[in-house]
Each structure stands twice: as C-alpha cells, then as structure tokens.
Predict the structure.
Amino acid sequence: MELNQNQNNTDTLAALQELIEVVAKLRSPDGGCPWDLAQTPETLTPYVIEEAYEVVDAIQSGDKKAIAEELGDLLLQVVLQAQIASESGQFALKEIAEGISQKLIRRHPHVFGDVSVQSVDEVRQNWEQIKAAEKGEPSSDNQKLSAKLSRYGRTLPPLMAAMKISQKAAAVGFEWENIDGVWDKFHEELGEFQHALAEETPERQQAELGDLLFAVIQLARWYNLDPSTALQGTNGRFVQRLQKMEAVVDRPLSDFSLDELETLWQQAKAQLAKEQ
C-alpha cells in the first residue's frame, strides 16, 4: 500500500510539474501565447471567480469527469497567478504551497501538536483564535462587529455577504420586532428606488437599487429562504424556457415580435410545468 501511495505521489508531482512548465511556456516572451502574455492578476480575477463557481456547479451535478475538469481549470488559475508573480520576483508556487502547508499545521494543533479537542466546535474556535493571533487581531469573540462585517463584504459574493451581514447584525439586536417592519422597509426602499429612477443621478439610482436588494434579502432571511439559491433557480428556469422556445421555432428568436415571444414563453412555461 505504501509503495502504491509513493508512486501516486510521484505521478502527481510529475503532472503538476508538467502544468507548471506548460503555463511558463504560455507566458514566455519567446513563442508564448499573446493572450496569456497580456494577462495581469487583475484581469484574471473574473476567471478565478468564474472557475470557482463552475467547480461548485460540477460538484452539485455529481459528474466526476466534470468535477475533475473544473478543478483543473481552477488549479490553472492558481498556477497562472503564481507564474505572473514569479516573473516580477514577488513569490512563486513554492511559496504558495509552503505557506498553506504551514498554516494548516499551525491551525490544527490537535493533529500536529499536543492539543486535545472534543468537538467540531472546539476545532473551529481554536482555528479562529490562532487565525486572529497570526494577523495580530482580537479574537473573533472580542473583534468589533463592524470589522467582522467589513470582511464579509470584501470576501463573499454580494448576495451571500448581504445575508451574512444581516444575520450577524440581527444576532446583536439590530433587528425588526416583526415581519411587518421588514415589509415596511421593503416598500420604503422600493419607493426611494422609483423616485431615484425618475429624478436622481445614476449614482443615486445605483445606491437605491442596492438598498432595495438588501431589503429583499431581509425578507428572505425572515422567511428562512436562501436568496442565492432562489436566484440560481430563476436563472435556470429562464434558460430552460428559452431552450423550449428555441426547440419549436425554425429561426432566431430575434426575428419574432414581442407578442409572439410572449406566446412562445407562456407555452414553454406551461410545458415545463407539465414535465415537472
């Protein structure tokens, strides 16, 4: 068994080395790819996010081949970022791997040290305390609420961040007394958004749209609904209905009038409802 594991490790390291060399070649000024050479850490940021979501989608599908492929695409983003950084002498993939290994060892003293834990909650608490100490910050329990919420806003997708922020704020009492107050807030924000669209600047319109979306998320929280899952479902249904529409016509949808498109839409909606 140990011999097989050693061989697997050797094969894995060889595969990783090949990937590193392929990416280096793509970034080489001598015969590399113009697109890859034009990329910066900032221009690649959307791809990091996109590939992470595609990994999640593949995992949810249960398709092992798709999962492996999407994890490969995400790994490419890590290697590509490391390659770009190494070209300017900032850091390389070696530092990335060493850094995460050392972090895992530090934050798991119950595995790599002599600390004893009795539950998953204790593991989480130790992790947070060690993390705070590493960053020179107060522990999670002593950290100011605004600091915690600011981190969520920076590091989570907007819908997820809004839900997390509102949950944490509600936990310390920043909350409506009942659902009627939440609905009042929604209608208030809706009115302010409509007013902004009619009379205010694009900047104010954008701000009021954000306030309205935040109010919708509060409704979702009170009704124990997940806004990200809800929107993902709506996106999927929208595409499914378009697929049904395109399946019964012989020309592009852009060739149809709005009334014709509405008829096709309702037919697709009814067909999908029967199939479900």
Notes: The chain has a mean pLDDT of 93. The radius of gyration is 25 Å. The chain has 13 helices and no strands.
